[in-house]
Amino acid sequence: MEDRRRTAAVILAAGKGTRMGSQVHKQYMELFGKPLLYYALLAFENSSVDEIVLVTGPGEVRYCREEIVGKYGFSKVTAVTEGGKERYHSVYEGLKAVTNCDYVLVHDGARPCVTGEIIEAASQGARQHKACAVGMPVKDTIKMSDENEFAAITPDRNRLWMIQTPQAFEYELVLRAYEKLMSSEKYQKGVTDDAMVVETMTQEKVKLIRGDYANIKITTPEDMEIAAVLIKRNQRDK
Ligand code: CTP
Ligand code: MG
């Protein structure tokens, strides 16, 4: 039977790209003549997602509406809304701007190499487990340092994952988790992803599902060079 439950995507582009250190915020830097954000939007536009909410910085809403959503004809975008100071503020704004859905995928606009397969896996993961995050087992040994940067703890690598987006949830569950987070300041410190919000603010467990090592987040300048290679490869494989 056809699954008529609706899925939305919240795509985040309200960051300042401090670590990139570029004049233009990294999500608007150009790759093959298109802003980086275009590639993530395209993947979601071409997916089974019903609705896309784009969250952007103050003063960037018009640019996104006209120069990205309008120009490239992203017809699934139902809202372009202003984010906030921290990533979790932006997510919360995005969740509130969704019009009608049962499930929601939250994705970093700075991950242009996301594919239809990854989006589908996350959507299915939300249906099956209520909450999931895509990630990959880490390749390097990870150490936690003490405050003087001496190695302190070496966790078992076999259980370490690097977490990516999309992260997908039952809409009511993640909205409730975020509402709770917004009203309790002590939990807000160090929140870097949505799974963490669901983990700490609800009883629900978040399933980790395999994404792709190529689903990188553009963070520092060399990531742009890597993304160029990966985007070309994705386009060739189509
Ligand atoms: N993001 C957001 N709102 C914020 C902070 C981040 O929407 N207040 C988005 C970014 O635009 C990005 C994603 O969240 O798509 C992941 O964040 P990150 O890679 O940390 O991007 P920036 O915060 O822009 O970069 P930096 O931390 O280097 O300043
Ligand atoms: Mg950041």
UniProtKB/TrEMBL annotation:
GO terms for molecular function: 2-C-methyl-D-erythritol 4-phosphate cytidylyltransferase activity. One of its GO terms (biological process) is isopentenyl diphosphate biosynthetic process, methylerythritol 4-phosphate pathway. The record marks 157, 217 as: Positions MEP for the nucleophilic attack. It catalyses: 2-C-methyl-D-erythritol 4-phosphate + CTP + H(+) = 4-CDP-2-C-methyl-D-erythritol + diphosphate. Pfam families: IspD. PROSITE patterns: ISPD. Pathway: Isoprenoid biosynthesis; isopentenyl diphosphate biosynthesis via DXP pathway; isopentenyl diphosphate from 1-deoxy-D-xylulose 5-phosphate: step 2/6. InterPro entries: IspD (IPR001228), IspD/TarI (IPR034683), IspD/TarI_cytidylyltransf_bact (IPR050088), ISPD_synthase_CS (IPR018294), Nucleotide-diphossugar_trans (IPR029044). Its EC number is 2.7.7.60. Keywords: Isoprene biosynthesis, Nucleotidyltransferase, Transferase. The record marks 19, 26 as: Transition state stabilizer. Belongs to the IspD/TarI cytidylyltransferase family. IspD subfamily. Catalyzes the formation of 4-diphosphocytidyl-2-C-methyl-D-erythritol from CTP and 2-C-methyl-D-erythritol 4-phosphate (MEP). This is 2-C-methyl-D-erythritol 4-phosphate cytidylyltransferase. The gene is ispD.
